[in-house]
Predict the 3D structure of the following.
Amino acid sequence: MPGVDVSDAGSMRISDGAHLQIGTGGSDAGGVCPFCGAGALAGAKKCSYCGAALVLETLRLAQLVVEGGSLTIDGGSLQIVGRQCRAIHNAAAANDLETVKAEVMGGDDPNFEDGKGRRPLHYAAATGALATAQWLLAIGAKANATDDAGCTPLQLATDSGHAALIDLFAMYSG
């Protein structure tokens, strides 16, 4: 689709005046596949041409950037989620590794920032949640990420006196 770039990481950039429509349109006659442009029958769940899913229950993108275009969602809604504390942050603070894993496996981003720019790893560092911090680092959490105050997980672990975490972050920060 002209002006729409989708990365392997799940981000989508819409630029150059592109128009992206998610869904097949609201008419009884059907609509157009938003991925290949082929005609789609009303109520169709897959495009008969390219096989793309036309009815999306949940659209989860790592990043959606709209530059000079428009975004239209027929028959649905788009929820813009700003920086906020989510279940993954609370689970990381509680060293509830099973919940952290479940959140990530369910599509949550292990590097998602809360309202203060803190990521789950910051929460694990501040509370001494060693097992959670180890797992988050193993799946790619950013050890050197700074929050809005400029603090890294290493600094939070140091301030809280969590020696095992200090050693762990030192290995990843070097």
